[in-house]
């Protein structure tokens, strides 16, 4: 079959720094397929050829492709069959159908079934390259969106709520049950326990994940500004209102609104918020026109709202609207066995962020972090590890990298026989080993993986010693 040649120049595909675009060409006419392959490889594509529909279907199952170019009319599996197979096996790929003038209606049917485009024979190579480039860009954009979604899941999904303590396992299990619903959730916990992270995880695992997640700190704003932020305002509503402004409720329409420190919300604003929750309508400040909104409300506080109700600073009816489901986040003191897991998680996170090569943390530094009380909870631990990563120069986070807030390095107490050399004199090696393993397990909050690292032995060896010494 004659392949038409275009005299107009075509540019090479813009592939950035990633791998080359992979193209699969499926055509009964081998010579025609080879001409298409040569034309595309000349401008930088990586091409493979199948000379039958059956062979093409098998190749689709064997490896991924960015673009599939298939003849519509073939003896065994036709182009529509290839299209269906590609949509099933390669959901991120684009399919281009090649057809003769007599089968244009079938090509249109292929477009309706998800083909990216169709080309008429004889092919114009310039047009072919242009269509393949657009298809490749579309496929890579799809892949980029999938990668972005994966990173969001890693950061804000349940995987981002780090912890293996019984308390955190209970929290994560509850999150999995409530995320797919539209229920309002009240998240309670001390400052720094990760309330906004949990709210983002709920949103990211809900049917609203492709709509906005909007956060607002209710404690940081005055009454008038808070109402404007929540409900918006119209031009002239107050002195500085020089134009209309959309509020958080309108901006979050279809998605999730996270109200942080909701316990600090003024009573007047609480009344207006309750009205919105009851009728699903907001009214901009300075306007009388109601606006329908569809928003899921997640809220958080470090206050005891029942005490606030008793003192008259928080409305009981709003409290019950907000707490259809309650999530209580434990303090880091309550789940100290998660500290080693969080340390390793933050080391990996900030080593990537700051492009540092970090081999790990010294046992002495780990002991220091494990012994600390963490009044600022996970946020404080996160900041400490990031600081250590930033100031480190030798790839090992050690006592010299600790910030001042953790004080002087821990020194062994001479009064403690378990840590004093004098206290070990006269004991058998077996007794000393048992003592050190017991002390290390205590220091790690019972985390055996962490204890094995600190002792410099394998986990299996540690398990055997624990059983042997009945620890």
Describe this structure as you would to a colleague:
The chain has 471 residues and is an alpha/beta fold. It has 19 helices and 14 strands. It has helices spanning 30-41, 53-62, 79-89, 104-112, 125-156, 166-178, 195-204, 223-231, 248-251, 267-279, 305-311, 316-322, 339-353, 363-371, 377-391, 421-424, 429-443, 448-455, 459-469, and strands at residues 22-26, 46-50, 67-71, 94-99, 117-120, 185-188, 213-217, 256-260, 281-283, 290-292, 296-301, 325-328, 360-361, 396-397. The strands form four sheets. A five-stranded parallel sheet has the order 2-1-3-4-5, sandwiched between helices. Strands 7-8-11-6-12 form a five-stranded parallel sheet. It has a two-stranded antiparallel ribbon with strand order 9-10. Strand 3 (67-71), helix 3 and strand 4 form a beta-alpha-beta unit. Helix 2 packs parallel to helix 3 (79-89), helix 13 packs across helix 15 and helix 17 crosses helix 18. The longest helix is centred in the first third of the chain and has 32 residues, at 125-156.
Question: Can you give me a brief rundown of this structure?
Answer:
With 471 residues, this protein is of the alpha/beta class.
Number of helices: 19
Strand order of the largest sheet: 2-1-3-4-5
Poorly predicted parts: 5-12, 409-422
Q: How much strand? A: 5-15%
Q: Output the structural class.
A: alpha/beta
The whole-number mean of residue pLDDT values reads 84
In helices, the fraction of residues equals 40-55%
Backbone CA Rg: 31 Å
Distance between the termini: 80 Å
Number of strands: 14
């Amino acid at each position: 079959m004659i392949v038409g040649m275009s005299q107009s120049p075509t540019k090479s595909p813009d592939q950035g720094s990633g791998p080359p675009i992979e193209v699969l060409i499926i055509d009964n006419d081998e010579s025609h397929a080879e001409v298409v392959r040569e034309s595309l490889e000349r401008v930088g594509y990586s091409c493979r050829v199948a000379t039958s529909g059956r062979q093409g279907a098998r190749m689709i199952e064997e490896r991924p492709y960015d673009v599939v170019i298939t003849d519509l009319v073939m003896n065994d599996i036709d182009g529509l069959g290839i299209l269906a197979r590609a949509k099933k096996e390669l959901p991120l790929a684009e399919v281009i159908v090649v057809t003769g003038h007599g089968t244009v209606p079938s090509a249109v049917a292929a477009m309706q079934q998800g083909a990216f485009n169709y080309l008429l024979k004889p092919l114009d190579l310039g047009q072919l390259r242009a269509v393949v480039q657009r298809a490749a860009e579309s496929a890579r954009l799809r892949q980029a969106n999938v990668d972005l979604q994966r990173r969001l899941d890693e950061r804000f999904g349940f995987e981002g709520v780090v912890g293996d303590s019984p308390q955190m396992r209970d929290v994560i299990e509850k999150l999995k049950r409530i995320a797919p619903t539209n229920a309002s959730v009240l998240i309670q916990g001390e400052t720094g326990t990760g309330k906004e992270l949990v709210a983002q995880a709920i949103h990211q695992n809900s049917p609203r994940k492709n709509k906005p997640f909007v956060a607002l700190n209710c404690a940081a704003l005055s009454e008038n500004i808070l109402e404007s932020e929540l409900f918006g305002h119209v031009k002239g509503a107050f002195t500085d209102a020089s134009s209309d402004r959309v509020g958080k409720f309108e901006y979050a329409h279809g998605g999730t609104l996270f109200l942080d420190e909701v316990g600090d919300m003024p009573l007047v604003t609480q009344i207006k918020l309750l009205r919105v929750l009851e009728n699903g309508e907001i009214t901009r400040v300075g306007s009388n026109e109601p606006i329908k909104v569809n928003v899921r409300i997640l809220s958080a506080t470090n206050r005891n709202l029942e005490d606030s109700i008793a003192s008259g600073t928080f409305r009981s009816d709003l409290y019950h609207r907000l707490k259809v489901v309650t999530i209580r986040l434990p303090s880091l003191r309550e789940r100290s066995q998660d500290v080693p897991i969080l340390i390793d998680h933050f080391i990996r996170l900030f080593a990537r962020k700051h492009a540092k090569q970090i081999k790990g943390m010294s046992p002495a530094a780990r002991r220091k972090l494990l012994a600390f009380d963490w009044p600022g909870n996970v946020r404080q631990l996160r900041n400490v590890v990031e600081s250590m990563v930033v100031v480190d120069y030798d790839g090992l986070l050690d006592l010299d990298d600790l910030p001042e807030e953790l004080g002087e390095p821990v020194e062994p107490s001479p009064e403690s026989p378990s840590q004093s050399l004098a206290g070990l004199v006269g004991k058998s090696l077996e007794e000393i080993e048992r003592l050190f393993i017991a002390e290390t397990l205590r220091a790690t909050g019972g985390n055996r993986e962490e204890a094995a690292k600190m002792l410099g032995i394998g986990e299996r060896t540690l398990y055997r010693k624990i059983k042997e010494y009945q620890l």
